[in-house]
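Hi U.,

Before I forget, here's the chain from the pilot set. I'm dumping it here mostly so it's searchable later in email.
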Amino acid sequence: MPAPPNPARLERRRAIGEQIRAARIYANLSQLAVADRAGITLDNYGRIERGQSSPTLDTLLSVADAIGRPLSDLVREGPRPGAGEADRPGR
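Structure:
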């Protein structure tokens, strides 16, 4: 039996799911619309947004395409560019 995921890994999956959800809402798309466009079930897509699944790279690429955003925007970890002084040019 595989070992349970560590809490830090679960938190990272949850954070990525939140980023995907925010991008979907910003694009004014429903979960069903993204799932249909990505070719996955609504249940599977919901688990991705909740950070409850470990989707394949192909699935993540399909979700990114369905939302109309680069995959890197959806899975970026840490502060977003422009979020702080250190991210500004010349700093």
